[in-house]
């Protein structure tokens, strides 16, 4: 849905069986930034969550939806002009027909989003 338009996957690494690290580029020219916000673009929180959902789905090879967000913290705003490339680190464990997931979106020492929840 957002892949290829709002963000592009630059690289994918699998440091462990249930762990995937993606490097993605935000498309700072995407029309969503014209309204969010003119002159001061910020990646919307809902788009960060959609990105995680898409990347978890790609990692497990199934289309998944968020079933539960146990803990979600938006720690810093992402300005695509300042941080056009970020790392998305995802850890997941299959359980009871779904995937318990931890995810972090960050750039170097700056963490933008921490998520703990379940996808099904």
UniProtKB/TrEMBL annotation:
Gene3D superfamilies: Hotdog Thioesterase. Residues 14-95 form the ApeI dehydratase-like domain. This is 3-hydroxyacyl-ACP dehydratase. It comes from Chitinophaga pollutisoli.
């Amino acid at each position: 849905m957002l892949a290829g338009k709002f963000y592009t996957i630059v690289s994918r690494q699998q440091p462990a069986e249930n762990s995937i690290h993606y490097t993605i580029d935000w498309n700072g020219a995407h029309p969503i930034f014209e309204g969010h916000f003119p002159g001061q673009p910020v990646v919307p929180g809902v788009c960060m969550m959609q990105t995680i959902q898409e990347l978890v789905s790609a990692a497990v090879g199934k289309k998944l939806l968020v079933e539960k967000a146990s803990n979600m913290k938006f720690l810093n705003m992402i300005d695509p002009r300042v941080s056009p490339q970020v790392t998305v680190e995802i850890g997941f464990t299959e359980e009871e027909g779904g995937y318990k997931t931890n995810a972090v979106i960050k750039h170097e020492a700056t963490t933008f989003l921490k998520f703990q929840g379940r996808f099904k």
